[in-house]
Amino acid sequence: MENNMSYRIIALGVAALMAASPVQAQRRGTIEMGAFGGATSYDNSLSLNNGSGGGLRIGAFLDPRWAIELDGSGMGAGRPVGLSSDAHVTSLSARLALTPLVIGRLSWVIAAGAVNTDYGTRSSYGVSGLLGAKLALGDRAALRVDAITDYMTKRKDTNTGFRAGISLFRQPVTRVQTVTVVGPPAPAVMREDSVSATEQRRLRLIASQYGALRDSLSRPTLDTPVAASSMIALATMREMIHFATDSSLLSDSAKVTLDSKLEIFRSNPAMRIVIVGNTDERATDAYNLALGGRRADAAKAYLVSKGVDPVRIEIASRGESKPIAAGTTTDAQAQNRRAEFRLLVASDYLLPPKM
Q: What is the reported pTM?
């Protein structure tokens, strides 16, 4: 009877989990839903044989490492010869879980909290500890195994168990609302002597760059070989650089990529660009936005150190908001830790480096 009930619990849990939509696991606000089967060894003082059954789990991630988990399980346990009929043992647990280590698709979990166990004729409460591991099957699902120890402070007995099951992840939809407030423009008051000499030089430089761009538009159409060279120059300018985890230091390969852009700058004096820093999904939104800014600034500082006028380069950060690779695998995260280069001002074609 108890085993049939356990099978029903597992079947209902799997059916509910199939409705979960594909999301990225282990991000703030992610909901983890799971079903599991397992076995429990009860304290000798309870006069119960080992039990088996299943249960359900639900949890919510507070950030990429911390989560709150609730689970309930039902176990059918026999009794030694000569005692009454088999017992149906139910347990309810609440734990605070930490993911201290992630290696590729494998993540480790440790958790601690409170447990209440009903043995059919009596109940007890105590503390519960968990050590587990999750193997990601993609962005929406993971296999999970847990080893659990419950110490009942009321009866001074200890129960240990093992569980194995599947977890699915669901992240709430993020809604963004943009509100535009239109008001009368503030009056601009500027005296001729209020503009500094540095600002005047900057404005004259921008005006001359736009003039050079205007003049370039009147040039005749170039032959096909030059057009091909222009496409190569454009591809060189758009080539991205990548960074190590939680770092804005330029690697040797990133410096080689930046060096290849220097001659394009020299051959196209009217060209201006923006460098956009990006990160993977780990850490908070605010931290990733700042990290993306540091990465863009590092690329700009290198180009400026090689002679590019800083007024020709702007920087921006999008943090984790614009990934180019989906998922939370090591390869996807490496692709998303990048800096992109976009043209702000340029003629219809870019002149290739002078040979």
A: 0.45
